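Hey, can you fold this?
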Amino acid sequence: MASHPAPSDPSSLPSPVTTAGRDGLAAILARPHKAVLAFDFDGTLAPIVPDPEQARAHPDAVPALAALAPKVASVAVVSGRPASVAVRYGGFAGVPGLDHLVVLGHYGAERWDAVTGTVRAPAPHPGVAAARAELPGFLDGIGAWQGSWIEEKGRAVAVHTRRAQDPQAAFEALREPLARLAQKHGLIVEPGRLVLELRPAGMDKGVALGEYVREVGAESVMYVGDDLGDLPAFAAVEKLRSDGIPGLLVCSGSTEVTELADRADLVVDGPEGVTHLLTSLAKHLGTPSDRRP
């Protein structure tokens, strides 16, 4: 596990434990105006809470992003949530310094940018509405689901088990039945931290991140995530590395998911550790005028 504790001194920049991660960080520090910094929302910029509708960005997250964003090519939030919901829960709109923030919602199917304040999105997949309509009756026939609940996500629908009497047992019991339901409606199931999301195939954070990095013309990239849905983004950074674009993989650590920590160059202590990292990175980058060629 590529672990590193959150620094007690906000100006102390943690060091990645892998050579690729150190190369990625060095490239960001050397040419920040050519760097894309991308972040998951839930569990990364916002603490995980029992009710996802109550999720909000860590109090220090937006100030840290606002201090960092003017010094780099772009800051992007890549979320499974609808873009407008991530913007609202994050408090990203109208923040000085976040003028060019981009939110890639629904795994990149939606895009909000601070310049226009609007969301661009294609028509939703019809299978999502069909699965959503069938879910309540479908779940009624499965004894293990009591205490779980359905979250409407617009272009996806999710079943959470965090409130169940035995959350992990409910999660495991629902995986196969929900996979069958998803297949019936032309969808896939994306597992996460005690949540199973039914959504269209071809939507993932790796595709969204890779396309955005190339659109911006970035020469380096950092991605920070915490859950299984972030694995494709990790894979995208690894692919970019193989194409000659240095990258830094950061895990917002938790005890619920270890797969990301095992592949990360750097592990920080949840959203608080992420804000420490951002604050430290902003201090090391100086002012935008200091870094422009």
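Oh, and this one too while you're at it.
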Amino acid sequence: MSVSRRAARTPLRENAVRKRLVPYWLLLPGILWLLVFFAAPLVYQASTSVQTGSLEEGFKVTWHFSTYWDALSAYYPQFLRSVLYAATATVLCLLLGYPLAYLIAFRAGRWRNLLMILVIAPFFTSFLIRTLAWKTILSDGGPVVGVLGSLHVLDVTAHLGITEGQRVLATPLAVVCGLTYNFLPFMILPLYTSLERIDGRLHEAAGDLYARPVTTFRKVTFPLSMPGVVAGTLLTFIPAAGDYINAELLGSTDQKMIGNVVQSQFLRVLDYPTAAALSFILMAAILAMVTVYIRTSGTEDLV
């Protein structure tokens, strides 16, 4: 009797083991993808950052860690500029995206799908073409500059140091405008997802308790939408900090970001160790800022 029971338990145990292994088998393709296209290049870049040599003589791993300090000492203005531009664009995206996401989630009605299509429509156009379009929009003889000049807005922005004279192109304002436009959908989509999950009966309950609309937003809507705010700011700030297209096309040499330096070191100067070190410094800085931001924001969904 005991032998038959053991024989019956064996297939059951095998089935249980197979069921426990199913999730790992499903994760295997993704893990292999990360190992081949993320971990391996990361290890290779780490090796490159501690090499010395030249393109003619070849590069060798000499554990030259001072490359990191030399790169940071030489290009820290570009680092600070990248963080400043990315942070400014992120704040502008939040100020512009939150009202639009709120409108789509609670007030759009039958127009909701159309508005969502309009939000993601820029993704169907090349990033480069969209940025070049802003170069035309902000051109010196364009209507935007003409209107801003007639309203004396450019006098104020020039005094603040974000434009130069009566032109917008090749100034910090142009670069920030390009970053804000290109990454605005990355802010709107997570905000909309977070706002759309909020139960409308909570707003009705706040109204029944004689809460004003401003109080309802401050006490109910905004706290419940914090996961979307955190996700949107991260999805906007991280790629904006490493962007180089907007600074290349809309800025000048005085508006170069760290992405432009990395591109130049890799493709023009051919100083691969410095380029790799700059990449790792940027990645470490962003990782540290993101970690601090997530923990201070108190969003448990993302921690």
